[in-house]
Every structure is written in C-alpha cells, then in structure tokens.
Amino acid sequence: EAGVTQFPSHSVIEKGQTVTLRCDPISGHDNLYWYRRVMGKEIKFLLHFVKESKQDESGMPNNRFLAERTGGTYSTLKVQPAELEDSGVYFCASSQGFGTSGGYTQYFGPGTRLTVL
Amino acid sequence: AQSVTQLDSHVSVSEGTPVLLRCNYSSSYSPSLFWYVQHPNKGLQLLLKYTSAATLVKGINGFEAEFKKSETSFHLTKPSAHMSDAAEYFCVVSGGSQGNLIFGKGTKLSVKP
Questions:
Q1: Which residue(s) pair with B44 in the sheet?
Q2: What is the pLDDT of residues A46-97, one digit of tens each?
Q3: What is the per-residue pLDDT for A51?
Q4: Max Cα separation, chain B?
Q5: Closest by CA position to B34, among listed B1, B76, B62, B2
Q6: Which residues of A touch B104 (CB under 8 A)?
Q7: What DSSP state is assigned to residue B31?
C-alpha cells in the first residue's frame, strides 16, 4: 500500500512568488491534514479536510494560504505571495476517521521543505 | 485546551543503554496520545499510540510508553538503544473533536557508539 506522498520535496522561491504544494493521501482516506513546522518551532496544524470539504481551517495563518481538495482525492496548498516567514517544512497527513474516541492514526508524508529568499 | 510538553530538547545515550524521553500532557478529557519519530530526511513515523485501553503501550522497534494519569505523563522508553534510534521524537496529543494533532517541540536523541 502506497503511503502519503508529497511534491515537491524541496522548493526554493523568492519573496513575492507563488508556490503550490501537493499531497496525495493514502487511497481510501477521507481525512487529510496539513501541518507546518517553521524552524525552531513545533509542528503546527493548519487545516483538515473531510473528503473535499474543509472541516477545520483554524490553523491557517492568513489569507495568503489557500488549500483545496477537489474531488476529495489529492490536495494542494498554495502560498501567494510567499513571505520570508513562510519558510519551513509542510507536512501532509491522512487518516480513515477523525475524533478523539477512535484515536485514528494519521499517516504522514515526508514533507515539503519550502525556503523563501 | 490540550497541550504536551517534552521535557528535554536533546538526549544523548550510549549504544546498549536505556532510553527515556519524557513527556507531560494537559487535556480536559481522556486524551489520545502518540509518539512519532522522524529520522533525518524522512517523514514522520508513528511509534505507538494510547487510546484509553492498556496503560502500557508497546510500539515498533522495541519502544514502549506508559500512560500515567496521576502524573499526566506519557514517557517513552526503550531498554537498549541502537545506533539506528538516533532521530527526533515527538510526543503528540489529539487536539479535540476534529482530531487535529498537537505536537510537542521534539526531543533529539543521539546515540553514541
């Protein structure tokens, strides 16, 4: 079974440019999450999709970030325009269900390292 | 609100000696707790999880963790460290009804030959 994949693995862009990150979840996982780790900080939640719907986007830092999951399969996270503080590692995760009672495991991709110069 | 505190940012052990990575949690309800590991240039891998069943949880690669409600702790242990255990370890609590995860700051484990 293929795991969560993310593309690209690395991206280096200049301030003001646009970058789009892609995540392909494990087949059959309706739940897809985006997280981010900026240097020196903890990994933080950005948003959660259930199928194609945004279930929780409380962690999105500002309106320069746009996440989509058309068709409920892969997801993209666009940063436009990118700022220096957006540099970090962006992780995607997927799970079969969500909620505390089930303790559903989130399976993570390898991450995309974004550097904004 | 839920949170986790990893008490050590760096831990160094010798190969063959025990590993102890400490984590305290705060939760307003019975939490789901996890330990994830990230090896250099790799993604996050689940080591083990606690979901209100047995308080002693066994994971992969010989790791285990014990949920202690009275101490609000979920420390990760391994009897004998191996060089391949060198990595960064994250203690994680499930953040709420939506299931988003809340991460500790991570503990970097070094293993000396």
A1: B38
A2: 999 999 999 999 999 999 999 999 888 999 999 999 999 999 999 999 998 8
A3: 93
A4: 44
A5: B76
A6: 42
A7: P
Identify whether the C-beta of residue B76 lies closer than 8 Å to the C-beta of residue B19: yes
With cut-offs at 50, 70 and 90, classify the pLDDT of residue A1. low
Taking residues B43-52, report their average pLDDT. Answer: 90
Q: Nearest CA to CA, how far is A48 from chain B (Å)?
A: 7
Please state, in angstroms and rounded to a whole number, the distance separating the CA atoms of residues B57 and B54: 7
Q: Which amino acid is at A17?
A: Q
Separation of alpha carbons A60 and A32, rounded Å: 14
Residue B72 near residue B24 (C-beta atoms within 8 A): yes
CA distance A13 to A84: 10
Measure the CA–CA gap between B15 and B7, rounded to whole angstroms. 22
Asked whether residue B20 carries a pLDDT value surpassing 60, the answer given is yes
Segments in B42-112 forming alpha helices (H): none
Q: How far apart are CA B59 and CA B38, in angstroms?
A: 15
Query: Which residues of chain A does B44 touch, with a Cβ-Cβ cutoff of 8 Å?
Result: 91, 93, 108, 111
Judged by a CB distance cut-off of 8 A, whether residue A39 touches chain B is no
Task: Determine the distance in angstroms separating the CA of A23 from the nearest CA of chain B, rounded to an integer.
Answer: 13
Cα–Cα distance, A2 to A105 (Å, whole number): 16
Q: In this structure, is the dihedral angle defined by the CA atoms of residues B33, B37, B43 and B48, taken in order, positive or negative?
A: negative
